Amino acid sequence: MPVPTKSHAEESAPLSGFRFGAAIWTALAFASYINWIHLDLIELLFLLAPWVIVPSALALTPAPESSYPIRVFRTQRWLLFVAPALCTASFLRPAGITAALLASCWLAICVCIAWAGLNRLSRFRTQSFPQLCFSLAECYIGVGGVWLVASRAGLHPAGFKEPIVLLTAVHFHFAGFLSSIFAGLTCSTLKLTGWAKPLRIILLGTLLGPGLLGIAFLISPKLKLIAVIVIVVGQCGLAAGMARIGAANFPGTPIYRFAGSNPLSAIFLITASASVAAAMVYAATWALGEYPLQPMTDLSHMERIHGVLNSIGFGVIGLLGWIRFSARNAEVTS
Fold first, then answer.
1. Is residue 321 a contact partner of residue 272, using CB atoms and an 8 Å limit?
2. pLDDT band for position 158 (50/70/90)?
3. Are 21 and 88 in contact (CB under 8 A)?
4. In whole angstroms, what is the distance from residue 314 CA to residue 320 CA?
5. 3-state SS class at 125
6. Rounded-to-integer distance, Cα 234 and Cα 224, Å
7. What angle separates helix 179-189 from helix 317-333, to the nearest 10 degrees?
């Protein structure tokens, strides 16, 4: 089956969308820093998802012909501006009905993406591991959207209070959605290498870990520790795969090369890999402190260190690496 080629405009869309979202998020961060608006660290890190992470990651994901919601977002890009803007406005209001209604606009986007994920899953099932990754990623974001609205409504699902409610929304947007997208892109890229089969097994931790951790919070600290270990193993495998792809992009590298070398993409991918590996070490330290040992770090440190490494180091820089890698390989193979 011939692979459809992309126009130059389609190839540059992920990077232009990334720059636009990153510019707005940077302005929000600066405005918060000088106290023009009040957004705490968790809120700022979450807002990376609607402004930068989700639109850019969706642009990198191959959408089946039947995936109507994804095609709409790619052609009607104003939807991915209005919903993040209203979501941002929800954080500038006290938790309650008004904030929840504003955040519901982003939930609507998340539900549409999750619907596309279910359609993808019903079409491909387990026939393609990358497509399974993309399916689960799209489903996870629907869960994240529900927890966002619960947070902005001031609700306490299952007795959880802030910042756990909002952190759960962050978890499913980053550890659930973005990591699974990266897992699919990594497996698709390494499919012709000896890494493919063993990496798929390890990456099951990336795919299943976020959901298992969400369930574990409702059941027991022991299961929570197991879930964190599963995620750590999966994410470290993902870091190794991304670093492998990055290393092969340096000119003159004596290992398997891809369609085109791109040193800048290599630097981004390797930096993102190092960031997520460091974040996972910190997550494991936190989990060990939760059960059965004495706490070795607290939640505020997790927010500042693990959160920043995971969202900016892994998420933003990793996206830049994948965007440049995909554009360069499309350019060379077209």
1. yes
2. confident
3. no
4. 10
5. coil
6. 15
7. 30
DSSP secondary structure string for all residues of 55-118: HHHHHHSPPPTT-HHHHHHHH-TTHHHHHHHHHHHHHTS-TTHHHHHHHHHHHHHHHHHHHHHH
Cβ-contact 107, 84 below 8 angstroms: no
Q: Does 273 or 6 have the greater pLDDT score?
A: 273
Q: Where are the domains of the chain?
A: 12-333
Q: Distance between CA 145 and CA 114 in Å, rounded? A: 10
Question: Closest by alpha carbon to 192, among 256, 250, 255, 246?
Answer: 256
Residue 6, pLDDT score: 46
Q: Does the predicted model carry a pTM greater than 0.70?
A: yes
Residue 193's CB is within 10 A of a number of other CB atoms, namely 16
Phi-psi region of 252 (alpha: psi -120 to 50; beta: other; left: phi over 0): left
Q: What is the token pair recorded at 330? A: 């499309």
- pLDDT 10s digits, 168-215: 999 999 999 999 999 999 999 888 777 888 999 999 999 999 999 888
Mean pLDDT for all residues in the chain: 84
Q: What is the rounded CA–CA span in Å between residue 66 and residue 4?
A: 16
Model confidence at 289: pLDDT above 80: no
Are 250 and 266 in contact by the 8 Å Cβ rule? The answer is yes
Residues 57 and 11: beta-carbon distance below 8 Å: no
Which two tokens mark 100? 């929840």
